[in-house]
Every structure is written in C-alpha cells, then in structure tokens.
Design goal:
The protein is mainly alpha-helical. The chain is built from 16 helices and no strands. It has a domain of 113 residues: Tetratricopeptide repeat domain (Serine Threonine Protein Phosphatase 5, Tetratricopeptide repeat).
C-alpha cells in the first residue's frame, strides 16, 4: 500500500473512534465497527451503506462522513478506482466543517492531517506536507489518547528517519514504534490500520518475521482481504521465502482478476511473480509473466510503486 493512502486510512479510522471521546455511543458504535469490519473484508458497498446509516443516525457528527471517506480510500487502494478520491474529498469536506463546529483539538488535528494528504494526492506536495505537519503537531499535544499518539507516531517515525543523519538530533523511531504498537493493542475500531503502518516499518528494516506475525491475525479474521494478502507476499519475497511468496502472489493475481482488470495491484502481482521466476531461474514463467505485465502496465504505469519497478530494473526485467 502507498504510504499516503496508509496514512489516510489511519486518520480516517481514528476520527471515527473519537466521538465520546474514544468510542462512539450505542448504535453508532455498532455501525462504526460493522463498517470497518466490512471494509476489512473488502465489502465496500456494505461498508459505505453502514456509514450512511451512521450519518443518518447523527447528521451533525463527523464520524459517519469519515467512515464514508474511509470506504472510498480503501476501495481506491484496493481496486485503483480514481473516482474514489473525489468521493473521499467530498465526504472529508463535510467532515471538516463538522469537526470545526465541535471545537475539539483531536478533530481539528485530524482535519489538518487529512487535508494535507488530499493536497499531496492532488499534486500539491509542499502545501500537503505543511498541513500534515500541522495536524501531527496538534495531535501530539493530546495526552492520554492512544489514537492521537499512534497517528502522530506515523509522522514522527518518518520525520525522524529523514533527519537521523543530523548530529545532536534525538532518534525518535523506537518511541514511535512503541506508540504504534500501543495503538494496535488498545484501539477499538482500527487496529488493522496501525498494524499495517507497523508492518511497513518492519519491512523497511528487514524485520520480516515481525511483519509476518502482524499480518497473520488480520488474514485469519478477514481471509478475503486482498491488500493484506499481497503484503504477506511482499514480506515473504523480501525474506527470501520465494516458493511461499510465489504461491501467495499467484492467489493474489487470481483475486484481482476476479475483482476486475486494470488494478495497480494486479500489475504488482505480475511484476512480483516475474521477479520470483527470474530468481528461481524459471525463464519460461518469467517471460510469460513479463508479457502479461507489459500488456497490463500502460494504464497504471504512473501509479506503480517505485520500489517494485526499481527492483525489476535492477534485475534487468525493465
């Protein structure tokens, strides 16, 4: 999953949990839980319908609108439907105004953070970075709130990583990881999202067993989750467990073909399968996967993760 989309999902889910003050009351709590569960099972229409019910239950509260935006971001990340970004933006515009009306610092921080992410997705990287930073700073000031702490931890981790080369600057990465782990354990609605943020940190650090241990509970509970299945493949391949990774990516490819052609993730599955076949000296499979990859690539080329295409270039496949 792209980091920008990951952050968007984390923040949207966090907002949905902060109504009173960490959990939504009564029926709203049931609807929020059910909407998130449907999203994790890739049942996006059902997730959106439940979010609509949350809006109808309390039209003046941001939670339902943020759940609607959550569903749009999740569908975009999974199925590459660019129209979902526009739908998410419309829902967030409504949620922004309602969060301001509440006058709550948590909601204000989420709104700033989310606006930054949308600006970045729209191509305004500098404005997006400034807004995201403002949201992270506001959230980091809220004490005793594991959700706010975990959300700010995502920003803090990557900021600390970016400036770790500077002398006399404290390295906050270990602390950020601890806060994310606390969010995974304590959250009501969005443990899978914090879990994924932590998985990608483990992936970047070569801690593949730790990442796989975090992925397993999500797939156990939601075996239809295509995104976490592909993340499992990513971890297995980077860990050198090529036979297992090949099996996972083959399943992922079948899933995305069944869901509808033209997704970024279908092309990613093909690219990873080509890489694995190359490393296994399976020239016939490699060439066939590359043929399919080249046919499927043009419509999504600008949205492909650079980490994958860079590896394919290094292997001489591109």
């Amino acid at each position: 999953m792209r980091k920008g989309t990951l952050l968007a999902l984390a923040l949207l889910l966090a907002a949905a949990s902060r109504a009173a003050p960490v959990r939504l009351p009564g029926e709203a709590d049931r609807l929020a839980r059910a909407s998130v569960e449907a999203m994790l099972s890739c049942e996006y229409d059902r997730s959106t319908a439940l979010a609509d019910s949350a809006v109808a239950l309390d039209p003046s509260h941001p939670a339902g609108w943020l759940l609607k935006a959550l569903g749009a971001f999740a569908r975009y990340d999974d199925l590459s439907d660019a129209e979902e970004i526009g739908r998410a933006e419309l829902a967030l515009d409504r949620a922004d105004s309602l969060s301001v009306a509440l006058g709550d610092e948590f909601w204000k921080g989420v709104a700033e953070y989310e606006r930054g992410l949308l600006l970045a997705m729209r191509g305004s990287s500098m404005k997006g970075a400034l807004s995201t930073r403002a949201g992270a700073v506001r959230l980091s000031k809220l004490k005793g709130n594991d959700d706010a702490s975990a959300l700010a931890a995502v920003y803090d981790y990557y900021l600390s990583e970016a400036i770790s080369w500077l002398p006399f600057v404290a390295d906050e990465r270990a602390s950020a990881k601890e806060r994310l782990a606390r969010g995974v354990d304590s959250t009501v609605y969005f443990g899978a999202v914090y879990r994924e943020a932590l998985v990608w940190i483990h992936w970047a650090n070569g801690e593949f067993d730790e990442g796989l241990a975090l992925v397993a509970p999500v797939l156990d509970a939601h075996p239809a989750n295509r995104v976490f299945l592909q993340i499992r493949g990513d971890l297995l391949r980077k860990a050198g467990r090529l036979a297992e990774a090949r099996s996972v990516y083959a399943l992922s490819l079948r899933q995305y073909r069944a869901a509808g052609k033209g997704t970024v993730r279908e092309v990613c599955a093909l690219g990873n399968l080509a890489l694995i076949a190359h490393f296994q000296n399976d020239a016939a499979a490699r060439d066939e996967y590359m043929r399919l990859f080249r046919l499927a690539l043009p419509p999504v080329e600008k949205r492909m993760p650079r980490s994958l295409t860079k590896e394919m270039e290094k292997a001489g496949l591109l």
